[in-house]
Structure formats: structure tokens, C-alpha cells
């Protein structure tokens, strides 16, 4: 099996950032659960028709959860930018300072061959395996898609079990979302020539839908 050497300080920094991202996403889910327990969203009123605090919810906990979610979402966005920058550095390190491409099993050669596999063959295989079949049209702020790190114009290479080889229509994506409420769905996207492996958790939120983004077939 061909392995790519990705060890190094740049990778370590990215892995630490990803761990921090996972912690933030976990706390966002915890705070969102507080709102769901009280049957309110981020913008539902906390006072009754007479202006008194509602007695059917824990107003203090709801206010705290809303404030915390906003702070965490801001932290998450900033962290995703750092992760993108870090992944670009890792990608640069993989290419190597001489532009000969990543080190394969700890060795590379100037003619582009390693262990009998040409760099051209490796690139062709990657293109064949990772073809775009859908794109992200828009992403609503604070939505499950936004929290997962999806961005407008992301090119989707894989969504759950769907990829370009078995993709037929958008019904497949809709079915995965509908049957994965509260569960982690792996999404592989390409953005600015860099591939990202994201995890989205479809769930009800303040607006219609379970993702808060529009995904359309690649034209």
C-alpha cells in the first residue's frame, strides 16, 4: 500500500486545531440540547404576551446557552480559517521544496517514480476517485452545515455513501440527510484545490431544513 509521509510540525498544528474544533462542536451540541429541552430556538421570545419572563422555560439557562452558542460559533469560524491555512501548509510540505511531489514510503526520485508507480499514475487515480458531483449553493449562518465548516461554492466529492460513481440524483442526498438526524455524516469537499474531510450532523434548527444549506447537482 502506498503511504504518504505527512509527519511534521505543520501537521501537528493542524491536528491540534482539529481537536479544538471537535471540542467546540461538541459544546455547541450540548448548548443546542439545552434549547431543544426548553423547546426554543435562538430567536424565540423569552417573555410572555404581558412582558413577563416565561414560566414554561428556564430563562436563565436559555439565555446562557444562546450567548454561549454565539461565542462558540465565532470561535469555530476563526478556527476553520486557521485549519484551512494549516492544511495549505501541510499540502506545501507534502509537495516538497523541490516540487517533486510528496515523499512515498519515505523515498522519492527525480524522475517522478517511486516503488514502480509514476506520479502521473497517482494523479490520474486521484482524479478518477475524487470527481465532483454536486456543489454547495449557500450556507446559512449558525446552521448545522455552517458549524460543520461547509462553505458556499464547495465542490462535493463524497456525501455519506454517495460519490460520483454511484450518484444518480439529489434524492440520494436528501435521503441520507433525512435518515441521519443527530448522526455524523462524513462529507468530502474540494475548496480552492484543497480537499477537506468534514463531518455534518443533520438536525432541526431555527430555520427550515436539517442542514441549512443548498446543495445542487454539478452542472
TrEMBL record:
It comes from the Eukaryota. Residues 105-118 have a biased composition (Polar residues). InterPro entries: Nas2_N (IPR040815), PDZ (IPR001478), PDZ_sf (IPR036034), PSMD9 (IPR035269). Residues 93-118 are annotated as: Disordered. Residues 98-193 form the PDZ domain. GO terms for cellular component: cytoplasm; nucleus. One of its GO terms (biological process) is proteasome regulatory particle assembly. Keywords: Chaperone. SMART domains: PDZ (SM00228). PANTHER family: 26S PROTEASOME NON-ATPASE REGULATORY SUBUNIT 9 (PTHR12651). Belongs to the proteasome subunit p27 family. This is 26S proteasome non-ATPase regulatory subunit 9. It comes from Heliothis virescens.
Amino acid at each position: 500500500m502506498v503511504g504518504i509521509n505527512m509527519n511534521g510540525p505543520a501537521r501537528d498544528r493542524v491536528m491540534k486545531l482539529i481537536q479544538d474544533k471537535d471540542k467546540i462542536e461538541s459544546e455547541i451540541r450540548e448548548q443546542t440540547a439545552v434549547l431543544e429541552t426548553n423547546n426554543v430556538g435562538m430567536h424565540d421570545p423569552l417573555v410572555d404576551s404581558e412582558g413577563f419572563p416565561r414560566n414554561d422555560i428556564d430563562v436563565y439557562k436559555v439565555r446562557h446557552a444562546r450567548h454561549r452558542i454565539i461565542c462558540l460559533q465565532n470561535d469555530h469560524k476563526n478556527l476553520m480559517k486557521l485549519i484551512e491555512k494549516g492544511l495549505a501548509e501541510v499540502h506545501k510540505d507534502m509537495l516538497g521544496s523541490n516540487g517533486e511531489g510528496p515523499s512515498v514510503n519515505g523515498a522519492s526520485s527525480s524522475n517522478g517514480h517511486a516503488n514502480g508507480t509514476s506520479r502521473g499514475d497517482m494523479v490520474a487515480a486521484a482524479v478518477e476517485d475524487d470527481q465532483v458531483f454536486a456543489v454547495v449553493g449557500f450556507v446559512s449562518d449558525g446552521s448545522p452545515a455552517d458549524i460543520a465548516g461547509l462553505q458556499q461554492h464547495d465542490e462535493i466529492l463524497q456525501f455519506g455513501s454517495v460519490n460520483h460513481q454511484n450518484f444518480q440524483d439529489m434524492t440520494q442526498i436528501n435521503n441520507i440527510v433525512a435518515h441521519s438526524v443527530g448522526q455524523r455524516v462524513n462529507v468530502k469537499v474540494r475548496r480552492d484545490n484543497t480537499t477537506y474531510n468534514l463531518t455534518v450532523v443533520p438536525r432541526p434548527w431555527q430555520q427550515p431544513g436539517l442542514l441549512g444549506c443548498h446543495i445542487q447537482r454539478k452542472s
